[in-house]
Design brief:
heterodimer; A: about 325 residues; alpha/beta; Rossmann fold; four-stranded antiparallel sheet; 14 strands; B: about 240 residues; globular
Chain lengths: ~325, ~240
């Protein structure tokens, strides 16, 4: 449904995305995961025909996003990050306007349909300026669904919502995703895991990993981040810990200890505790902390720089000491 | 065509929900009314017959100042609200967007101008044997053509900034420049003088429409100025995509 090949976009001297290639099949819900400024919005804007890429090609439903921009725009529903609405219009007026722009037959029925879909019938006559952030998000979504698009592109659909609204919007996306192709961006890892069939991790304009959420989850929760803290002298700890079986590598050496990453499936804490105490360090704390998204990005990007080409999925797994569960 | 109408219709309605538009129109009517009253009163005491120019002349000047306030929001507001992204990803061509915006602003100003027709009607009652209708028709026709050009220039400038104040002053500056650009021709002759005179907005109004003449050259001037400004507006919107 979505084909992207070697997509590159420069803003002046700054390169926002570089040589991005991926595909999204019909009926997939794909999460576009990355920190702020990674190039998610840029990629989505190019796909929606908002702006052309500097280099590379992209097509949606077989139509080139530059050459056949209007055809693409007819088939795509897009909700930008800052849900663009006219505050001085009512919800109904706004949706009717968007329906008219898309030349929809029976525009009024279509408006009623999408209002029902996003549960906003009660506020149809209300002014958009009076809506809460969550309701605005839903109106934005309604706008994108008016023409029953083949592809739905959502930029950070749950940002700024309260937990109840987040839950609701995620359910809505899953519901929609049963019939349509959905591409959504987020920087929240659990969100991608809950909603998507597949996740693309992007950083600094490049795809650093591509996987199903299950496999990603396995990979990410496989290694444990362990914090080790001692009182007093801590020098030489790294040399002591590194040889222990099950220790993948040292993440960070601190004044009062260190953080390390363990191999998946092994709890190395008893072993470390023994080694530390035997070496007469004064152990004060030893605990596992989950890998934060930032660390995963750090890891993935670091690993990426160490290989020349190819998908990082494999290299990341290899680097982490995983065995044979690549999906490439 | 349908997209142009959809956009123009929304724009037109928005003006009626906007306090700024009412204030601009209100001030325009107020000043026009005072000038009208003074003129008619003066004419009565000095024993001459006022004609429809006592309405059209101040109206032209007022429109030069009122139009930037009306057009400044057209594209700049979309920029600020982020709705530009919505319009540029909807199946709408860039020129349809620009022309739609122009049409919306133009129709609103036509509405404002239509209300001023009350003055000629009143004047017609006051004087005998009534006003010179040819003068009125050509005057108002010129006014409408001029307004079309002004709104088009306003739209083009509105596409350049997202700050409405910047748009307002830039538009006003452009109007005033075009309004007086022909003045030096009183001192200079030759081809350059002719060119400046041709570019001048007021020259094409005061020397013909205002005194009851309809000249094809002035029609062509205003229409091509409108088309040119809308073209630049479209190019500017397209450039935005590339940035």
């Amino acid at each position: 449904m979505i084909q992207v090949e070697g997509l590159t976009k420069d803003y002046g001297a700054r390169r926002a995305i570089e040589d991005l290639s991926f595909q999204v099949g019909r009926g997939e819900i794909v999460g576009f995961l990355g920190p702020n400024g990674a190039g998610k919005t840029t990629t989505m804007r190019i796909l929606c025909g908002y702006m052309p890429p500097t280099a590379g090609k992209a097509s949606i439903a077989g139509f080139d996003v530059i050459e056949q921009s209007l055809e693409v725009r007819k088939r795509v529903g897009y909700v930008p990050e800052t849900v663009p609405l006219y505050p001085d219009m009512t919800v109904w007026e706004y949706l009717k306007f968007m329906a008219d722009l898309r030349h929809l037959p029976d525009a009024e029925d279509k408006v009623d349909d999408v209002l029902e879909l996003v549960h906003m019938e009660a506020r149809a006559e209300g002014y958009i300026s009076n809506l809460s952030k969550g309701m605005r998000q839903r109106v934005g979504l309604a706008q994108a669904l008016l023409h029953q698009p083949e592809v739905l592109i959502l930029d950070e659909p749950t940002i700024g919502l309260d937990p109840a609204q987040v839950f609701e919007v995620r359910n809505l996306i899953r519901e929609i995703g049963r019939e349509r192709t959905v591409m959504l961006s987020t920087h929240i890892l659990p969100e991608a895991q809950q909603v998507c069939n597949r996740v693309l991790i992007i950083n600094k304009g490049r795809i650093v990993a591509e996987d199903s959420p299950e496999q990603l989850q396995a990979r990410l929760s496989g290694g444990m981040r362990i914090a080790l803290r001692v009182a007093g002298e801590a020098s030489g700890l790294a040399e002591l810990i590194t040889p222990i079986k099950g220790v993948n590598h040292i993440l960070e050496v601190r004044q009062d200890g260190l953080d390390l990453l363990s191999d998946p499936g092994v709890d190395v804490r008893p072993e470390i505790a023994r080694a530390v105490v035997n070496a007469r360090y004064e152990l004060v704390e030893l605990k596992s902390i989950g890998l934060s998204l930032e660390e995963i990005f750090l890891q993935l990007t670091r690993e990426e720089s160490s290989i020349e080409t190819g998908l990082v999925t494999e290299s990341a797994l290899a680097d982490n000491g995983h065995e044979g569960e690549t999906n490439a | 065509m349908r997209n142009i109408w959809t956009i123009a219709k929304r724009e037109y309605k928005t003006f009626f929900a906007s306090p700024a538009a009412y204030v601009v129109a209100g001030i325009l009517y107020l000043i026009l009314g005072v000038i009208f009253y003074i003129n008619v009163a003066a004419a009565m005491t000095q024993q001459y017959v006022p004609d429809v120019q006592v309405v059209i002349s101040p109206l032209v000047t007022l429109l030069i100042f009122a139009t930037p306030a009306i057009t400044m929001r057209l594209l700049a507001e979309e920029q600020r609200l982020g709705t530009m992204e919505l319009l540029l990803t909807a199946p709408v061509r860039d020129w349809e967007l620009v022309v739609g915006k122009w049409l919306g602003g133009f129709l609103f100003l036509l509405t404002v101008i239509a209300v001023t027709l009350l003055y000629p009607v009143v004047l017609n009652q006051l004087i005998d044997p009534g006003i010179d209708q040819g003068l009125m028709v050509s005057g108002y026709l010129g006014l409408i053509l001029l307004t079309g050009s002004l709104v088009a220039i306003g739209v083009a400038i509105s596409s350049l900034f997202s700050n409405q104040i910047a748009v307002f002053f830039a538009t006003m500056g452009a109007f005033l420049l075009l309004w007086i650009i022909g003045m030096p021709t009183q001192l200079m002759g030759g081809t350059s003088g002719e060119v400046l005179r041709y570019l001048d907005l007021s020259e094409h109004f005061y020397s013909t429409f205002y005194i009851g003449m309809i000249d094809l050259r002035d029609l062509v001037y205003y229409l091509s100025l409108t088309a040119l400004a809308l073209f630049f507006g479209t190019v500017s919107v397209e450039m935005r995509r590339w940035r």
